[in-house]
């Protein structure tokens, strides 16, 4: 038996990645694909790399017959997503890839996103979508809120260390480099080739909105209030995020905590002590690579994590969650090796 799924926002980057992954998933079939400006177009015209697939034409959300659809991926801007998700019929399970339902406290959402929540009545039932940390809740959820891609990258490195108490929670500095596909497909001046290529720069200053996700999840893991310093930088590459976490602790204890936490996690690979990961080694995959390198200064440690923002950072994570919600094997459709070079 296969489950029918819809992708709302199928003409965007995460939508394309979902189609690519689901196309070879044995337990899922694509029942509907939705877009806004591109409604009425074929996937072949919007994404020529997917033209070999036999797929439904893009339609507006209100044109979909939801009766045969089991699960919807909402890959939309966050405010729009809240409205669209609220209008879906109750029998449809939802994985929202946006920031719309990630922050448990609507006042915190309003503070960081500058906009009132448009689906308040659904917020309480939303489960945070970092699969490795919310697996049991996700299995029983109707609405899952996918983690931000920067947030996911930092959390894979830091959450086990905060839970194990092997780092100082008051001294966490996260520096990230992020590929431009993280900004989505819609045209933006700051994302032009001439603005992004041949250099790098920090963005989201003074405080990037994913800081709110870090504060929420890090405080929960540490059992005390945690406020991180987080700076993302745009790198001239399409995919990938690398996080360098500067922490205080004992490097061997930190490495041991990561090895122990991820021993049974198929997508989380902890490199041997002293090795650092690279975005090019996880490209196109659902894997996250983690590394620990001690500094020459005693007690100063670098914790690295690398993932593909369009895969483990959004669409791969969403598919992993869909597998959990539909009672399918968690790794189904996700075990392909990264693309290299
Ligand atoms: N890119 C990334 O790495 C990550 C993205 N996310 C989040 O996932 C979501 C999708 O991101 P991404 O794919 O990059 O975004 P894109 O900008 O590439 O795509 C957005 C999609 O939303 C559709 N859309 C926009 N407005 C409306 C509307 N009013 N009604 C219906 N559909 C609409 C667009 O349709 P059309 O093309 O027809 O206008 C398009 O299909 C965002 O919330 C993003 O923040 C989360 C983690 C990582
Ligand atoms: C390069 C770039 O602009 N990246 C995006 C991250 C994309 C993401 O995770 O966005 P949401 O939280 O909106 O889902 C950013 O930093 O805002």
From TrEMBL:
Pathway: Amino-acid biosynthesis; L-arginine biosynthesis; N(2)-acetyl-L-ornithine from L-glutamate: step 3/4. It is an enzyme of class 1 (oxidoreductase). It comes from the Bacteria. It catalyses: N-acetyl-L-glutamate 5-semialdehyde + phosphate + NADP(+) = N-acetyl-L-glutamyl 5-phosphate + NADPH + H(+). GO terms for molecular function: N-acetyl-gamma-glutamyl-phosphate reductase activity; NAD binding; NADP+ binding. HAMAP family: ArgC_type1. Belongs to the NAGSA dehydrogenase family. Type 1 subfamily. This is N-acetyl-gamma-glutamyl-phosphate reductase. It comes from Pontivivens insulae.
């Amino acid at each position: 038996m296969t489950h029918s799924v819809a992708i709302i926002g199928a003409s965007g980057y995460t939508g394309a990645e979902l189609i690519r992954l689901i196309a070879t998933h044995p337990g899922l079939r694509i029942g509907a694909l939705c877009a806004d400006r591109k409604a009425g177009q074929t996937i072949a015209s919007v994404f020529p790399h997917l033209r070999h697939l036999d797929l439904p034409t893009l339609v507006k959300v209100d044109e979909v017959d939801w009766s045969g659809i089991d699960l919807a991926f909402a890959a939309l801007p966050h405010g729009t997503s809240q409205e669209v998700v609220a209008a879906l019929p109750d029998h449809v399970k939802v994985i929202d890839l946006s920031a719309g339902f990630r922050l448990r406290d609507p006042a915190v959402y309003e503070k960081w996103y500058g906009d009132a929540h448009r689906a308040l009545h659904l917020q309480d039932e939303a489960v945070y979508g970092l699969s490795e940390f919310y697996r049991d809740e996700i299995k029983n959820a109707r609405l899952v809120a996918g983690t931000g891609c920067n947030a996911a990258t930092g959390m894979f490195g830091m959450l086990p260390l905060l839970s194990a108490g092997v780092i100082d929670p008051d001294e966490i500095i996260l520096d990230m480099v992020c590929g431009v596909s993280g900004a989505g497909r819609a045209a933006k001046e700051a994302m032009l080739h001439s603005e992004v290529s041949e250099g790098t720069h920090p963005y989201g200053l003074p405080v990037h909105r994913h800081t709110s996700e870090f504060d929420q999840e890090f405080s929960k893991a540490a059992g005390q209030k945690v406020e991180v310093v987080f700076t993302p930088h745009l790198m001239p590459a399409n995919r990938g995020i690398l996080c360098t976490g500067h922490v205080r602790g004992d490097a061997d204890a930190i490495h041991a905590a990561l090895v122990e936490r991820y021993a049974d996690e198929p997508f989380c690979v902890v490199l041997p002590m002293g090795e650092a990961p690279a975005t090019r080694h996880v490209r196109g995959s659902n894997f996250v690579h983690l590394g620990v390198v001690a500094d020459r200064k005693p007690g100063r440690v670098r914790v690295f994590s690398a993932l593909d923002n369009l895969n483990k950072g959004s669409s791969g994570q969403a598919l992993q969650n869909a597998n959990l919600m539909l009672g399918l094997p968690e790794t189904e459709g996700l075990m392909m090796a990264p693309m290299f070079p």
